[in-house]
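re: ur question from yesterday

yeah so i grabbed the chain u mentioned. its 346 aa long if i counted rite. heres the sequnce exactly as i have it in my notes:
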Amino acid sequence: MPEGIQGSTSEARLLNDERFLRKISYMYYEEGHSQEAIATMEYCSRPTISKALQKAKDRGIVRISIVPDVRTGYLRNLSREVRTQLGLEDLILVAGRNMNAVAAHNQLDEVVTEIASAAADYLDQLLNDSDILAISGGRTFMRNVIRYLKPTRALPHMQVVATIGFVESRTSFGDANLIAYDLAEAYGANHLWFPCPAFFPDEDLVERTRQLPIIKDAYEMMTRANVVVTGLWTPHTNQDMIKRGILTSEQVTAIEAYRPVVDINHWVFDAFGRCINETLKPFPYTLSGLEIPSLKERIQRGNTKVILVAGGGPSYVSAIRATLRAGLANILITDHITAQLLLIDN
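ran it thru and got these structure tokens back, copy pasting raw so excuse formatting
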């Protein structure tokens, strides 16, 4: 085959390989390599790299947006400042929107989409074949993370499990078990269902249930997870819990007396990061899944990355702040408006 035709065929093959496009995009936009340097590292021509970057834009792998009223480099500087002040290991920011006209318990859908998409890309870069991943449920963020996930490689030895059992007898797209299953399928990874009710009336019953063979392995896996991904809920969702018959109005009233600002897998915390489940005795229910307060110690030991995915609405600011005050996350993926507000009164 003539050399010119062979080179053209090789370029066409690379430009149709999504893994190549994502790799080149990451090297150029995230790592800051020049097109010439990338061409040398990838043994191809600089025009091929230029075409690959353009094709990555066309396919939506790379999305470039202009943040209104912010200077060049502002997001990078803000990320560094927030990460330092809040003691985070990592912080990923997307462009936010002014939330002055947003109702207290609403969120901006376009910002939620950007946050979830950024989280999907971050996970794809972070995960390794030896990881044990535990993931929470949620229709707003976690389901969208799965929706925008574009795996660049198979991880056949990675293990995936939910952080919480079922809260209802019927399933939904927001169920943690289903989200964990979908993520494992995307990477060809190993998955264990946690086929257990989320709520129990007392601790003794929880402990006995965790010893059942069908539940024991999954519970032990989530306690050994070195990567945890979670969303959060704000207190206004309690009324929905009553409507769905998950909690009674009396239980919600007892909890709300302690002024909760964030709910993570039904572990609730006040504005100072104090766990209300451990303060209110007896608490209205006992949970069977991952013990969320234990994440603080695991982070301090340095053997667990806990990724919090949230933002795009006013109520998320106090919820994220309380979560970080409780020491329950060391990586945050949010929008830049939320990040700015987190610095206030921190």
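noticed a couple things. The CA atoms of residues 117 and 148 lie 5 Å apart. also The domain at 74-342 is CATH 3.40.50.1360 (Rossmann fold).
anyway ttyl
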